[in-house]
Amino acid sequence: MIKVLQVMAALREGGVETLLHSFCECVDREKFHFDVACFSHADGVYREKFEELGCKIIALPSKKQLFKSAKALHQALKEGGYDIVHVHQDDLSFLSILVAWRAKIPVRIVHSHLGKYPHSLPRKILSAITNPIMFRLANGYFACSEKAKKEFYPVRLWDRVFVMQNGIPTERFRFSEETRKKVRAEWGIQDDHTVVGSIARMTDQKDPLFLVDVFRILYEKDPRFRLMLVGDGVLREAAEQKIAAYGLQDVCILTGARNDAWRFYNALDVFALPSSWEGLGISFVEAQTNGLPTYASLAVPAETKISSLIEYLPKDEGPALWARRILANEGRDPHPALDHRYDIRAIAEEVQNEYSRLRIGSRGYTPTDPPKIIPEGGRS
């Protein structure tokens, strides 16, 4: 059996956590065992879900306590007997990769989920120093998209990067009229209301304040519009203040963090998420799978297009353009024609093959029961 420690920043309601949980659901547990380590929010909404799958949750000290967190991670690695450490922290992965290298973990994977994104000058300088070292200490390289690969890794590594699509359990996100009625009833949404919303953390990256501005225009055009923001984050208070300043408190719903966020796609009529940057953006795939008219910013990779339901819009022309395009949408397609390349079951099989390839290729490993390796001509 191959033991893998997945190292996360936190166990919140984010896309990376959702992806990893869906992946764990599909893994062959006779060949792989996963545990999860995180530096904050160890008791977040996903803890119980991971534990139900047999994953041990290892709560590490905050990275602000640098030496303490490094020591705790090193101890966890030594005690756990892991074959693979898979780090999901982009350019903050350096500490975890360094500790895994010092602990002599055979396979050390760094995973780019975002690619390039805005940083303060000190953070940029730090990344410029640590990333080249991290790339040398790692021996496995993952990215969520071609964009994330090319923005994060040096050209010399591109041929070695495994692009792990952010897969979803497709059937879970199919439209359900029954679920739609239940969720809308729970939140007091009437049949004639048109609900625009997003399912995302409320952070600068996802820009919920821009979406509030879009909604204000929509509501002025048609008072049957409602706004639903599913998720939580540092900008929640700012969003609430802006909503109050516009006098829209009675027509906006902020659900906070949810561990059943997938249900809320059914309650929406339009999905809009004006991200400032994305490595991929799995929620756009989920929304299209649910049949929703979907609106994304130009910062979202074109790889998210799995149907004709998605439209990419500039933000620099302001919220009025977004409002016009949303008003012109043709409504939900309950049975959309989809490109199924993001089905998590197929992706999980690919990732297990890649784990096996890396583990067997690492020094000093003699498998007694070799897992299936990707066939010649397949993905590597």
Description:
The chain has 380 residues and is of the alpha/beta class. It folds into two domains: 2-167 and 343-361, Glycogen Phosphorylase B (Rossmann fold, 3-Layer(aba) Sandwich); 170-327, Rossmann fold. It has helices at 15-26, 47-52, 66-80, 94-102, 121-137, 146-152, 177-186, 208-221, 236-245, 264-267, 282-289, 319-327, 344-361, and strands at 2-10, 32-40, 57-59, 84-87, 107-112, 140-143, 161-163, 194-199, 225-230, 252-256, 270-273, 294-297, 310-313. The chain has a seven-stranded parallel beta sheet, sandwiched between helices. Helix 1 links the parallel strand 1 and strand 2 (32-40). The protein is globular, with a radius of gyration of 21 Å.
Question: How is this fold's topology laid out?
Answer:
Blueprint: E1 2-10, H1 15-26, E2 32-40, H2 47-52, E3 57-59, H3 66-80, E4 84-87, H4 94-102, E5 107-112, H5 121-137, E6 140-143, H6 146-152, E7 161-163, H7 177-186, E8 194-199, H8 208-221, E9 225-230, H9 236-245, E10 252-256, H10 264-267, E11 270-273, H11 282-289, E12 294-297, E13 310-313, H12 319-327, H13 344-361
Helix pairs in contact: 1-13, 3-4, 4-5, 8-12
